[in-house]
Amino acid sequence: MNRPEILVTNGELASKRFQVPPGGLRLGRSSSNDVHIADEELSRNHCLFEEDGEDGIRVLDLASANGTFVNGVQLGGDAKRLAVGDEIVAGRTTLRIVDEHTSTDEALAKPAAAPMPRGGVDLGLESPAAGKSAGRDPANPSMPRNRLANILWGIVAILLASAIAIVFLAPDPAGKKARPLRPAAAPAAAEVSELYYEKVEADSAHIFRYELSLDRDGLLRVEYDDVPGENRHIEKTAKLSENAQKRINEIFSAPGWDELDEAYTGASARSENALKSRRVRVVKGTKIHETLVENSNEPEVFAKVCGALEAFTRNELGVWALQYSRAQLIENSAEAEKTGDARFAEAEVEYRNLSEALAAYKEAAFYLETVNPKPENYEALKDKLAKTREALDAKYREHRFLANKAINLGDWAEAKEQLGIILQLISNDSDERYTEARAKLMDVENRLKTKKAKGSKQ
Predict the structure, then answer these.
(1) Which of 129, 162, 190, 426 has its CA 20 to 30 A from that of 238?
(2) What is each CA distance from 392 to 144, 362, 395, 425, in whole angstroms?
(3) Which among 453, 438, 432 is positioned nearest to 77, based on CA atoms?
(4) pLDDT above 90: percentage of residues in the chain
């Protein structure tokens, strides 16, 4: 049996290959997916690859916000069988179906199956406010705008490189030797080689400090102190991958970053008896840029860079909650619990409210995992979580029984309705119950189509 494989052709997972297991392969922005990609244009659960017969695979869009495209055509609600050479675009990520016996280098060398778009080309440099949908070329909405930008900028880069080579390598009229390219012109000069980020929140009773550093050897280190609070000191390190280094470079390519002043300061810590500051120092080639914001409003680009750094660290080192103070974690938990209460109160209004209540309570409990001692409401929160889980399980068993009964009786319309309710109840497509219901629903829908087709012929 020769089953095709999925090859990622761009982005942070470029050159990675995946086989589709019997249970399917889910792709999306959420870390719960089988293939997790930090792509803002991906939905949390974007699309699902499944086995299709003994030697095939198919793809199904999971009601994603930006859609899933096969060879430039957006998928509808039905799954599409894939063939070797097909190109799938999800968000800014492009994937290709390859033969399992074909090497990665050979597969990447082959041209994409999707045709080049016609009409005007959007370089992707305008803001969303310009009236264009994010990430798409208006002349061809099935083609992500970033792919077009990459193609054009690649051509520009080739032409520019050729021009530089002609200027610097051509012998001069006097017959002197050709001049070599200057090292400073190499792209590596713009890469981030060192990085330091510090966030401090302190008052007369408490000090919270979060420090991130990256050295020239590519070693990323995060250090966390919360005193007295939880009175803990945590330190984690990791060697950056090539893709992670690229992400760091992208963060510090933000427009306006290099124009920031060295310091933005407000009231002094002594007069306020409190300190709230963030400091970033980055080395790119021979240039050093440092900005400090202390007890003052942050410039927009500074806030975005700091936020991107913290998000990057969460994904790279798995220290999601460490950069937040105890007070912030408790506040986040309370907000999530409040959402859970509202959804649970409306559990009979919409089926999905029960699963959303469960997800909110789980989030509230997650925020408190690293908080010690636990707040007074912690035990009550655990009770709400258990009560909601029990209610969801009972509803699931009820509608699963009704769905199976309808299937056994050949009542496909009723089976479709009950399975649809289960998908709303469970919601989380990484749950085995969701996977089972989804598979049954696809089979039921195929039977309904067959029945309708037979009826129209009579």
Answers:
(1) 190
(2) 39, 14, 5, 7
(3) 438
(4) 35
